[in-house]
């Protein structure tokens, strides 16, 4: 994705591939090695981090503006498809998933979400598979949240709802009627 330097403005939300969605706080000039360099100062609220990216290296670093709502819809629709082939050993697949997550590309994030999502309430996930799925979903949700003016948690829920991902069963949940019956039994 070719990005012109002038596309980045103060207050604009951008995606840095390995960190997710951040906001350009300012453009500052610093003297580094005797040269004046313009830096984009990007703040990532979700992990309390500030990143400085040289303006002339922004494209090379993979920094990009948010995708359009249409492109996000395309990514989510691609996550509805059938899971990809699982012929590789898990370690190699996990490495590919990690690369896709760190690419910052919504279509590659959608591939990870598609391949690792639970298809039914009975499906189980390995710990590492769940971690990768949650990271990919969060990255998609960060961008979705900005595009649709939602909180990130709500955006993740909305994406899973669109995909038809079954809700997890809360084994600690107590039915209100059961709780009331237990209180009555204790009183008598």
> How confident is the prediction overall: mean pLDDT?
85
Task: Going across the biggest sheet, name each strand in turn.
Answer: 4-3-2-1-5
CATH architecture descriptor text of the largest domain: Up-down Bundle
> Rg from C-alpha positions?
21 Å
**What's the structural domain tally?**
2
Per DSSP, the total helix count is 7
CATH superfamily of the largest domain, by name, is CarD-like, C-terminal domain
- Form type: elongated
Distance between the termini: 70 Å
CATH class of the largest domain: Mainly Alpha
Question: Which descriptors apply to this entry?
Answer:
5 strands; Methane Monooxygenase Hydroxylase, Chain G, domain 1; five-stranded antiparallel β-sheet; Thrombin, subunit H
How are the SSEs placed, and which strands pair?
Elements: E1 13-16, E2 20-32, E3 35-44, E4 49-54, H1 58-61, E5 64-65, H2 69-78, H3 90-103, H4 106-116, H5 127-148, H6 152-163, H7 176-187
Antiparallel strand pairs: 1-2, 1-5, 2-3, 3-4
What does this 3D model show about the protein?
There is one protein chain. The chain is α+β, with helices and mostly antiparallel strands. It has two domains: 59 residues, Thrombin, subunit H (Beta Barrel); 95 residues, Up-down Bundle (Methane Monooxygenase Hydroxylase, Chain G, domain 1), CATH 1.20.58.1290. Strands 4-3-2-1-5 form a five-stranded antiparallel β-sheet. A hairpin with a 3-residue loop joins strand 1 and strand 2. The longest helix is centred in the last third of the chain and has 22 residues.
């Amino acid at each position: 994705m070719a990005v012109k330097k002038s596309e980045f403005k103060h207050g604009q939300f951008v995606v840095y591939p390995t960190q997710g969605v951040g906001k350009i706080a300012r453009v500052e000039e610093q003297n580094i090695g005797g040269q004046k360099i313009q830096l984009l100062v990007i703040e990532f609220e979700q992990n309390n981090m500030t990143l400085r990216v040289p303006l002339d290296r922004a494209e090379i670093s993979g920094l990009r503006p948010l995708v359009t709502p249409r492109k996000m819809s395309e990514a989510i629709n691609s996550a509805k498809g059938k899971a990809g082939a699982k012929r590789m050993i898990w370690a190699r697949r996990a490495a590919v998933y990690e690369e896709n997550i760190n690419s910052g590309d919504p279509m590659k994030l959608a591939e990870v979400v598609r391949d690792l999502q639970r298809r039914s309430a009975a499906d189980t996930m390995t710990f590492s598979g769940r971690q990768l799925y949650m990271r990919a979903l969060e990255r998609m949700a960060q961008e979705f949240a900005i595009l649709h003016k939602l909180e990130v948690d709500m955006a993740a829920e909305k994406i899973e709802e669109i995909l038809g991902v079954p809700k997890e069963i809360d084994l600690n949940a107590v039915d209100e009627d059961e709780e009331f019956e237990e209180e009555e039994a204790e009183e008598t």
